[in-house]
Amino acid sequence: MADLSNIDLHDLAGHLEEALVHHGVNSMELARRSGVGQSTLSRILSGKQKHTKTSVLAKLLPFFLAKRRPS
């Protein structure tokens, strides 16, 4: 199993921003779809979140793996 303790949260924020643009959704919609709190997503995206639980990452993972919805 991968060592998740060394995830660079700035990289996570960048990838998350790219995924939001790719899927054409905002952080509020991602919060609704994933069950991750809007405030948690905001802290991740702003780089203020120093540590992120694996349970939060697990909720976000399907969003990264989902195919882009047709326009």
TrEMBL record:
GO molecular function terms listed in the Swiss-Prot or TrEMBL record: DNA binding
UniProt-listed Pfam families: HTH_3
Residue ranges of every copy of the HTH cro/C1-type domain listed in the record: 29-60
InterPro entries linked to this entry: Cro/C1-type_HTH (IPR001387), Lambda_DNA-bd_dom_sf (IPR010982)
PROSITE patterns noted in UniProt: HTH_CROC1
Domain of life: Bacteria
This protein's name: HTH cro/C1-type domain-containing protein
Organism: Fundidesulfovibrio magnetotacticus
Phylogenetic placement of the source organism: Bacteria, Pseudomonadati, Thermodesulfobacteriota, Desulfovibrionia, Desulfovibrionales
